[in-house]
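Notes from the 1:1 (GR / supervisor)

We went over the backlog. Supervisor wanted to see one worked example end to end before approving the batch request, so GR pasted a single chain during the call. The sequence is below; no edits were made to it. Supervisor asked that the structure be written out right there so they could see what the output format looks like.
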Amino acid sequence: MARIRGLKRYILTVPVLTPRLSICWLYFVTSTSFSLARSLVESMKHPVLVRDDSIQKIIPHHCLSFAEAVNRAFTPVEGEELIYN
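Structure output shown during the call:
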């Protein structure tokens, strides 16, 4: 997302980071709740790539790419001010 938005972000790796430590880190460095942090970290255990596209036969539609979705999310709605930097 940072690349798409033109932002410079650094990724730090640590030698040991258990899921429990990841939950605590996410909770303390963001404004999320502990239960949401836990759900987010635990959800990373599961693959999220969709390989079955049979829904296209039932409901034909165009899926957005990740870049398109990010750009739309940060595009202000008419009459509203963009508040994210």
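Supervisor's comment: Helices lie at 2-5, 19-29, 34-43, 55-58, 66-73.
Batch request approved.
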